[in-house]
Every structure is written in structure tokens, then in C-alpha cells.
Amino acid sequence: MTIDVVGLNSGDPDPVESPCIRLCTLDDDDVCIGCFRSMAEICAWGTASNNERQQILIACELRQATSRQRA
To answer: What pTM value is reported for the model?
Structure first.
């Protein structure tokens, strides 16, 4: 059995890996400054399907790109 950083995996044989880089700090919008997941996404990750995890990763990439444009 594989254990995800945030909880139990989704049961998929090859689960999408967590984007966690162990820089867990939330900004004012409750988004992690390390992996760019929202608190809700972090909590949902452990039981999310691979499709749901891929959608979360896409949202993270968009947040990260937006964050870079502001800097």
C-alpha cells in the first residue's frame, strides 16, 4: 500500500504524485506557497482520483504562472 503525503491514496494503481515540496505555508488566500494548492485541494488530495489530481495540478500551474507575473 502506498501512502500519500497528505493521506491515503485514491486507490488508483499508479496514483498521480503529490506536488508537495515540503514548503507548507499558506498565503492570505489559503494557497500553499510551495505547491500552489488551495487548502481544499490539499485536504481532497488523499482521496482524489487521478483525473481529479490532474485537474488540481492544472489549477496549481495556473496559480503559479499568475504568481510569477505579479512578481
So the answer is: 0.79
Q: How far apart are CA 57 and CA 30, in angstroms?
A: 16
Domain tally, the chain = 1
What pLDDT digit, counting tens, does each position of 4-58 carry?
Answer: 444 455 567 799 999 999 999 999 999 999 999 999 999 999 999 999 999 999 9
d(C-alpha 33, C-alpha 64), whole Å? 9
> Would 63 be classed as within a structural domain?
yes
Q: What are the cell numbers at 58?
A: 492544472
How many residues appear in the chain?
A: 71
Does residue 2 lie within any of the structural domains? yes
Quote the domain boundaries for residue 69: 1-10+20-71
